[in-house]
Amino acid sequence: MATISVFPSPTGTPIASGVAQAVAGDVVVVYDGTYPEPAVTISVSNVKVVAKNEGKAVREGFGGIASAFIVTAASGAEINGFVIRNYTADGIDVTTGSNHRIIGNTVYNTLGIGIDLATGTGHLAWRNNVQKAGGAAGINVASASSWIAQNVAYENTGPGILLSGANNAAVGNVVSENDSYGISSTAANNFIYGNTVSLNTTAGVNVTADNTVLLRNLVKKNTGNGITAAGTNGYLGGNDSDENTQTGISITSNFNSLEFNEMEFNQNFGLTISGNENTAFGNRFTGNQPTQISITGLDNNLF
Q1: What are phi and psi of 18, to 5 degrees?
Q2: CA 197 from chain center: how many Å?
Q3: DSSP states of the chain as a string?
Q4: Are 269 and 245 in contact (CB under 8 A)?
Q5: Which distant-in-sequence residues (6+ apart) come within 8 Å of 24 by Cβ?
Q6: What's the pTM?
Q7: Cβ partners under 8 Å of residue 284, min gap 6
C-alpha cells in the first residue's frame, strides 16, 4: 500500500494524476488548497482519496465543470473530507459497484444531486453535509443495502434524502428546510431510524413503498404532514411528529402497525387513517386540531 500526496496547481490536474497512479490499497492524500480541475474518476477498486485535513481541500466547479468525483470502480472506493462546491451536475456520482464510502464531505451549490448513489450495493454515506443541491435530491440512494448515517441535508431543491432503492437504512440524519420532502422512501424494505426532520416545505417523511420501518424519528414543524405512510405492511414505532401544518401521521394504505408514537399540536389531526386493517396502540396525542384522530378506513384496530 502506497500513499500518494498531491498539492494544488492552478493549471494541472493533481488529484486526477494521483488517482491515475494508484493501485488497489493506495491512498491519495490531498493537501489543503483549491482544486478546479475537471471531474476526477476513480476506476480502480479499493483506492481512497482523502483530504489531509477535513474541509481544507476544496473541489471548485466554477467554470462549467460537471462533477467533482465520479466512481466507476467495482468496489471499495472512498472519498473523504472534501469541500465540493459550484458544480453543474452532481457533486459526487457513484455509477456502479459495491461498498463505496463517501465520508465527511461538504457538498454545496450543485445544479444536480449533491451525493448520488446511483446504483450498486452496500455503500456508506456518513457525516456528509449537503446544501443547496438543485437536482432530484440532496442525497439520492438508488443503490440497495446502503447506509446513510449522520448526514446533514439542508436547503436542497428536492428531498433532503431520497431512498429510491430498496433495503437501505437512513439513520441519525438531520434533514431540514428542503424545498420538498425531508425524507422520501419510494422503494421497499427501507429502514428510517433516529432522524431529525424539520421545516421542510412539502412534508417531513413520505413513504410510498411496502415494508418500511420508521423508528424513533423526530418530525417537527414541516409544511404538510409530518409522516405519510402509503405503502402496506409498514411499521411506525416511537416516532414524535409534532407541530406540522397538516397531520402528524397519515396512513393511507393497509396493514400498517403504529405503536407508541407521539403526535402533538399538529394542525389537521394528530393521526388520520384512510386505509384499511391497520393497527394502532399505545400512541399519545396532545393538542392536535381539530381533533386528535380521524378514521375513515375500514376494519382498523385502535386500542
Answers
A1: -65, -45
A2: 11
A3: --EEEE---SSS-HHHHHHHH--TT-EEEE-SEEE--SPEEE-STT-EEEESSTTTEEEE-TTT---SEEE--SB--EEESEEEE--SS-SEEE-S-B--EEES-EEES-SS-SEEE-S-BS-EEES-EEE---SS-SEEE-SBS-EEES-EEES-SS-SEEE-SSS-EEES-EEES-SSEEEEE-SSS-EEES-EEES-SSEEEEE-SSS-EEES-EEES-SS-SEEE-STT-EEES-EEES-SS-SEEE-SSS-EEES-EEES-SS-SEEE-SSS-EEES-EEES-SS-SEEE-SSS-EE-
A4: no
A5: 44, 45, 46, 47, 76
A6: 0.97
A7: 260, 261, 262, 263
Please, what are the averages of pLDDT over each run of 10 residues along the chain (303 residues)? 94 95 98 97 98 98 93 98 98 98 98 98 98 98 98 98 98 98 98 98 97 98 98 98 98 98 98 98 98 96 91
pLDDT digits (tens, 9 = 90+) for 28-51: 999 999 999 999 999 999 999 999
Radius of gyration of the chain (CA): 21
149: amino acid identity, one letter = A
Q: Are 228 and 253 in contact (CB under 8 A)?
A: no
**Per-residue pLDDT tens for 255-277?**
999 999 999 999 999 999 999 99
- Rounded distance, CA 32 to CA 29, Å? 10
For residue 256, what are the contacts with CB-CB under 8 A and spacing of at least 6? 229, 232, 233, 234, 235, 236, 275, 278, 279
Grid cell locating 291: 381533533
Q: Cell triple for residue 48?
A: 481512497
Are 72 and 49 contacting, i.e. CB atoms less than 8 angstroms apart? no
